[in-house]
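Each letter names a residue; structure tokens follow underneath. Both lines appear below:
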Amino acid sequence: MSKALQINVFDMALQEEKVLNADYTNDVLLTCNERGMLQKIKGIEWIYISAIQFSANGDVVAILENTRREPTDTKPVQGMKMEMPGFTTYANHIVAIRVDAQGKTQQAVISRKGASNEIFDYVLNAGCAMKGDDLYIYYHEGRDETEYNLNEVIMDKTMRIIYNKNLPDIIEKKRTFLDLNNMYALDHNRKIVYGRIAKKTIAASLDFK
């Protein structure tokens, strides 16, 4: 179980300068452990880092995702007599953490709940990009490749949400998955992401305010 995000800082000679520990706040612990009792919470389960960015002043910003898979009853394989173990995947929350050079942390939870008996890691993925000290967060939300939304959340340097919008028609009103783990800068205000429909690859640009 994870209790904190640890960041090791190195100089140009790869000598370790310091270690920053961003302990999760009570709000984050409570939100990401909604099934647990308060007195039993010691950390967050099933959490991983999906993106890391650096702000204009050198702060480290990380996007964490809290997901889990739970086994379910076995189900018969179509057209066969054998049965396969079942499972349900839960995508619950995105956690944004900002750490400055002194180790001071600011955290925020962006609720996002989904459940599926299929693997939807690519459908419900999260990514982020910086412009100045503002953090742009993008994440998918949906059940499958034919029904999903792309969401944009902008947070200022205090991790306060200043903009929240659904972007359903990002690529010429075609529904496609965007690979939010790969955002490439075109210029100061534009970044490009890639998506796919079946075997086709499509590019789309995101405009930054």
Observations:
- Residues 93 and 111 are 5 Å apart (CA to CA).
- The first helix runs from residue 26 to 32.
